[in-house]
Amino acid sequence: MSETRIETEALTPSRAGIDHAAALLRAGQLVAFPTETVYGLGADARNGAAVAAIYATKGRPSFNPLIAHVADVAAAQKLVQWNDWAEAMAAAFWPGPLTLVLPLREGHDVSPLVTAGLQTLAVRVPAKACARDLLAAVDGPVAAPSANPSGRISPTTAEHVRVGLGGKIAAILDDGPCAVGVESTILGLAGDMPVLLRPGGLAAEDIRSVLGHPVADRDAMDPLTAPGQLLSHYAPNASVRLNATEYVPGEVSLGFGPGIFDLNLSEHGDLAEAAANLFGHLHALDARGMPIAVAPVPEVGLGVAINDRLRRAAAPR
Ligand code: TXA
Ligand code: MG
Fold first, then answer.
1. Nearest bound ligand to the CA of residue 153
2. pLDDT (average), residues 131-154
3. What DSSP designation does 289 have?
4. In the predicted model, what is the mean pLDDT of the chain?
5. How far apart are the first and last CA of the chain?
6. What band does 124 get if pLDDT is binned at 50, 70 and 90?
7. Closest ligand 1 atom, CA of 200?
8. Coil, strand or helix: which one is 299?
9. For residues 148 and 265, what is the distance between their CA atoms, to the nearest angstrom?
């Protein structure tokens, strides 16, 4: 949001470059790094403020769930509920351009902003050695959408990243062009049936031949029953009232800025802090089983994405 430009370090995939990139990520900074598909804009997935900075930096007008990148299967299994399909897919295609969507595991440490409040998580082990070395050095999940400003095409070289995001992120790890050049294929494995949620760098035929089970195609499904649709938006059970300036008994209140509320997105009116708290606070208030009244959030910077989500949460269902 802030227009302040920072110096974007150019890092090489040497031991020192990888370790420095990992240290920046662990300190909550944004680092672009190459995968075999496209360059990703990485943030520590456990750090809500760092994940909020991804949205602010890309200028994304809405919160879409992000992919958690991990170094190996064992790291993925700490975050999600593993199953036989995941085992077969990982054995055949990881590391590689395949993302698996699985139910979150209890005790996981991923920020709710990564999943946009969903109870499922997209995970992948990228194949590019530089990415895996980085993930091993971070020793934790890294959330990363493609490293381009919202609405622009995905970057396949460090130079693409620098043109789009130079001056806005801490560093770019440069390990040459991406071999695959299109995003990973996304396979939903959280329901009764595997669903191809996004075509990508791994062909659907390859998935089908290994899985030995029919795979539903998201696009071919009735939009009302397509798991991809159902998966894509977290909505609270409680009714949600927006732009509340006073609160009635029987409601729970979600504040923004100074005041007395049941929970506050940010007492100081900080939009990045509010984004980091958004889904966690909505879940917590929803658990109270009462209508939720939400204070106005300014429609600037990250407030645009916050309000987009709040409007979806408030929409009649
Ligand atoms: O190749 C790639 O996948 C690249 C590199 C950087 O790894 N990343 C990438 O991220 O393409 P992004 O943010 O542009 O796309 C992530 C996609 C979105 O379409 C999102 O809706 C979907 O993954 N997604 C993430 N979590 C999901 C979930 N829990 N359920 C369903 N879809 C999910
Ligand atoms: Mg993208």
1. 2
2. 95
3. T
4. 92
5. 32
6. very high
7. 1
8. coil
9. 28
Looking at the predicted structure, is the pLDDT value of residue 199 above 90? no
198 lines ligand 1 (CB under 6 A): yes
65 lines ligand 1 (CB under 6 A): yes
Checking DSSP bridges between strand 98-103 and strand 240-241, what pairing results, if any? Answer: unpaired
Q: Which ligand approaches the C-alpha of residue 97 most closely?
A: 1
- Closest residue to atom 12 of ligand 1, CA basis: 145
Distance from residue 244's CA to the centre of ligand 1 (Å): 33
The pair of structure tokens assigned to 317 is 């269902």
Give whole-number Cα distances, 190 to 40, 68, 259, in Å. 24, 16, 40
236 contacts: CB under 8 Å, gap ≥ 6: 282, 283, 285, 286, 292, 313
Q: Among 87-91, 133-137, 156-160, where is mean pLDDT lowest?
A: 156-160
The token pair that represents 159 in the structure block: 């130079």
Distances (CA, A) of 16 to 13, 23, 104, 167: 8, 10, 34, 22
Question: Ligand 1 in contact with 64 (CB < 6 A)?
Answer: yes
Q: How many CB atoms lie within 10 A of CB 146?
A: 22
Predicted local distance difference test score (pLDDT) of residue 225:
45
